[in-house]
Amino acid sequence: MANHEFSKQELLDKAEAYCARAEHCAADIRRKLFEWGANADLFDEIVEKLYSNDFLNDTRFCHAYVHDKVEYQSWGRLKIQAGLRALQLPEKIIGQSLVEIDEACYMKNLRNLIQQHRSDTEDKQLRFLLQRGFTYEEIKKCK
Prior knowledge:
Layout: H1 8-21, H2 26-35, H3 40-52, H4 58-73, H5 77-86, H6 91-99, H7 103-116, H8 122-131, H9 136-142
Helix pairs in contact: 1-3, 2-3, 4-6, 5-6
């Protein structure tokens, strides 16, 4: 927690600046507000202002999250979905974001992971890929 006590306006300004640097969700903002020592009574009010000023947008965040997890971390749909659910985002938005995954890139990532772990036993490789969030059917399709 912070040693300095911030006013409501200072907290809002800090939250806006934080959101301006990268996409975040309401859970991220609540965590930051807690770190900054904000009174819990202000959390919802600040988050609502961020939504109304379009600093927070669940759809935009989900699309960015899905893109980054597929593109940079080679996660499968199941792991991405679990990550978004953990952030308490609406199921409808999660579903829409997952549908828009670039299938060619997704399958290329899976093939690359299979290739990188080809020296593992088949069981070990399968466990690794399942933990990355790929379904058994997707894995078998690529082998």
